[in-house]
């Protein structure tokens, strides 16, 4: 049974919504492209998910995947007052996601950052502040807030945002280059 909120996004006969467990998709070599946005960080068994995605793609099919980039998972601890039970179970960086995809039979063709935390500068920007050695942590934060107020993020060109602000997500596009075999008994 497809929830109403999903069905309204699938008008016509060309789109058939399916509700399925992402770790055990009911498809085999059916798709040229699969996108996964805000999913991988929530699944319990990432190996089962990647196996399932590989199996669902046709040979040479593509996978576009978006996941959190170097996220602080401590903020999800109930002890910190986080009110929700369903949280991110993992976070990724470029090499860890690339390695996972390679192990699952994919070759990454594109990788880029998406979404930026405008309240925090990129790590290399902070290293410039640190190089002066004369500013305390509080002074650096105050200077950043002042710069931030003078140049609101929406006024900064997108490519420059990537260089200055800390990314929130990483996106990778990969091609299926191998079918992951079932282990022998």
UniProtKB/TrEMBL annotation:
Top-rank lineage group of the source organism: Bacteria
Record-linked InterPro entries: SAM-dependent_MTases_sf
One Pfam family, short name: Methyltransf_23
Protein name: Methyltransferase type 11 domain-containing protein
């Amino acid at each position: 049974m497809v929830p109403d909120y999903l069905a309204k996004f699938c008008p016509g006969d060309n789109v058939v919504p399916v509700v399925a467990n992402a770790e055990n998709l009911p498809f085999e070599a059916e798709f040229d492209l699969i996108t996964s946005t805000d999913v991988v960080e929530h699944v319990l068994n990432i190996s089962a998910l990647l196996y399932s995605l590989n199996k669902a793609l046709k040979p040479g099919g593509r996978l576009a995947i978006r996941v959190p980039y170097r996220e602080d998972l401590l903020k999800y601890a109930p002890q910190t007052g986080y009110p929700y039970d369903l949280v991110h179970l993992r976070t990724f960086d470029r090499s860890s996601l690339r390695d996972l995809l390679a192990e699952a039979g994919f070759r990454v063709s594109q990788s880029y950052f998406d979404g930026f935390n405008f309240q925090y500068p990129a790590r290399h920007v902070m290293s410039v502040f640190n190089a002066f050695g004369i500013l305390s942590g509080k002074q650096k934060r105050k200077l950043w807030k002042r710069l931030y107020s003078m140049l609101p993020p929406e006024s900064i060109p997108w490519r420059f945002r990537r260089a200055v602000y800390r990314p929130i997500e990483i996106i990778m596009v990969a091609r299926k280059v191998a079918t992951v075999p079932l282990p022998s008994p």
